[in-house]
Amino acid sequence: MPRAATSDSRMVSRKLEMILRHSAHVFAEKGYEGASIRDISRASGVSLSGLYYYVESKQKLLYLIQIHTFRTILSRLQHDLRSISDPAARLRILVHNHLEYFLRHPMEMKVLAREDDVLAGGYRKEVAEIKRRYYGTALEIFEHLRRSGQTRRLNPRIAVLSLFGMMNWIHTWHRPWVDPQAEVLSDVMSQMFLHGVMNGHQAESQKPSRAARGALKVAARAVG
Amino acid sequence: MPRAATSDSRMVSRKLEMILRHSAHVFAEKGYEGASIRDISRASGVSLSGLYYYVESKQKLLYLIQIHTFRTILSRLQHDLRSISDPAARLRILVHNHLEYFLRHPMEMKVLAREDDVLAGGYRKEVAEIKRRYYGTALEIFEHLRRSGQTRRLNPRIAVLSLFGMMNWIHTWHRPWVDPQAEVLSDVMSQMFLHGVMNGHQAESQKPSRAARGALKVAARAVG
DNA sequence: TTGTGATTCGAACGAACGTTCGACTCAGGA
DNA sequence: TCCTGAGTCGAACGTTCGTTCGAATCACAA
Q: Do B196 and A200 lie within an 8 Å CB cutoff?
């Protein structure tokens, strides 16, 4: 029973993950309101009523997708930031982490970006809270950049939200087979943002990330 | 009859405009799929069936909002660009025009930004076409900037779409009573983009727009 | 073999959806 | 005065929605 229970609960959570994956795809394609539970049933191969054994409502489905995505991306960011102290480098890590996850999980991120004000009540508050923490991390990084005297006078809120705008808008236009991948894209956007925000002296000192160096010929080709 | 006809048709188009205005508000608040014709009926004060005297379907409602918004913003841009030839100045005009219209018609712009892939068939094609022309104008401006040798090596598609990302993301965070208005906002974003994209020498030569100069104290306060 | 709890699903619920229809009002021309 | 057509709407259409329920199936301990 104990052994069976763990294997069972592992099975259950595996199946739940699979349902969430298909749900994210359906939500991304049709939007939360435009997607029906029947669409999700069809996509996941689980019967209509069978879905309710794993998730108690359509809202909870969206909540689980959003909270899981946010938690993952935030914890990865905190991990990657652990060993870095230079503000500009930290900023580049934030952008790279965001875009890397974005392009590896485009459906989940599209759902995150689009269905911002669908949730209600406690679900809404929980997602808003973790989103606030993610935004706060970005704001902190920018403030460090500012305090180290490297930026022009700028409203930090606007600067940071503009950066998120650049990044999140990607879900409307990025096509994996014609557009650059995360490494190049995050280098380009980091540099655009840092150049755009700095006072012009340190701007030249940045170097491409280790991972991106190999992709530079691709970038050069893309530059046309 | 002819006089009466014009007065009538003026009345009709006035009422249609009023319906579209309320529809945009409802779509912005609940999303296209989440909004019902009954919501629009309630908001506009026109009976459920009465709406169908003016518009033949819910899709057409969305189409009319989107096509009208795009046409207006594009024609205003072309008008404002007419007398300007300097590429950087043209870029600033594009940003100012976009944000000015954005903040003056937030509901319509939210609908434009969010409900991108809802329309089908001919409606979809028409909206896509005018959107392509708007994007093309921005791309042209950037190419001029590039050819005048002022920008770093950059994928133009990514640069321009990042700019649109910065601008369009505003609908998720801008609060009229706490955030800067269009003049300040467009100056900030223009400068961020131009600094971010230029090779660093001409970057200092830009000046705030006439309209924004008066708002600079507000900006300075906002910079905190 | 029997019993039990976890898992699955067909069928149905009431509510809400977009759209249609026929009747009504009413101002203006004949 | 009667007629016409634009404008308006209550009531209903058939469909789809999210969710529920009870029965069936399954693996496995007793």
A: no
Hunting for tokens 């929980």 — which residue is that? Answer: A126
The residue in chain B having the minimum alpha-carbon distance to the alpha carbon of residue A36 is: B33
Secondary structure (3-state) at A198:
strand
Instruction: Please work out, in degrees rounded to the nearest 5, the angle formed at the alpha carbon of residue A200 by the alpha carbons of A197 and A204.
Output: 105
Per-residue pLDDT tens over the stretch A89-124: 999 999 999 999 999 999 999 999 999 999 999 999
CB atoms within 10 A of CB B120: 10
Strand C contacted by B6 CB (< 7 A): no
Ranges under pLDDT 50 in chain A: 1-7, 202-224
DSSP letters for chain A: -HHHHHHHHHHHHHHHHHHHHHHHHHHHHH-TTT--HHHHHHHHT--HHHHHHH-S-HHHHHHHHHHHHHHHHHHHHHHHHTT---HHHHHHHHHHHHHHHHHHSHHHHHHHHH-SS---HHHHHHHHHHHHHHHHHHHHHHHHHHHTT-B-S--HHHHHHHHHHHHHGGGGT--TTTS--HHHHHHHHHHHHHHHHB-SSGGGG----HHHHTTHHHHHHHH-
Q: State which residue has its Cα closest to the C1' atom of D20.
A: A49
B42: Cβ under 7 Å from strand D? no
**From the CA atom positions of chain B, what is the Rg in Å?**
20
> Of B83, B92, B85, B87, which is closest to residue B207 (Cα–Cα)?
B92
pLDDT in tens, chain B (224 residues): 333 334 456 767 889 999 999 999 999 999 999 999 999 999 999 999 999 999 999 999 999 999 999 999 999 999 999 999 999 999 999 999 999 999 999 999 999 999 999 999 999 999 999 999 999 999 999 999 999 877 888 999 999 999 999 999 999 999 999 999 999 999 999 999 999 887 765 444 444 444 444 444 333 333 33
Contact at CB, A31 and B118, closer than 8 angstroms: yes
Q: How far apart are CA B106 and CA B94, in angstroms?
A: 17
User: Which residues of B are less than 8 Å from A154 in CB distance?
Assistant: 188, 192, 223
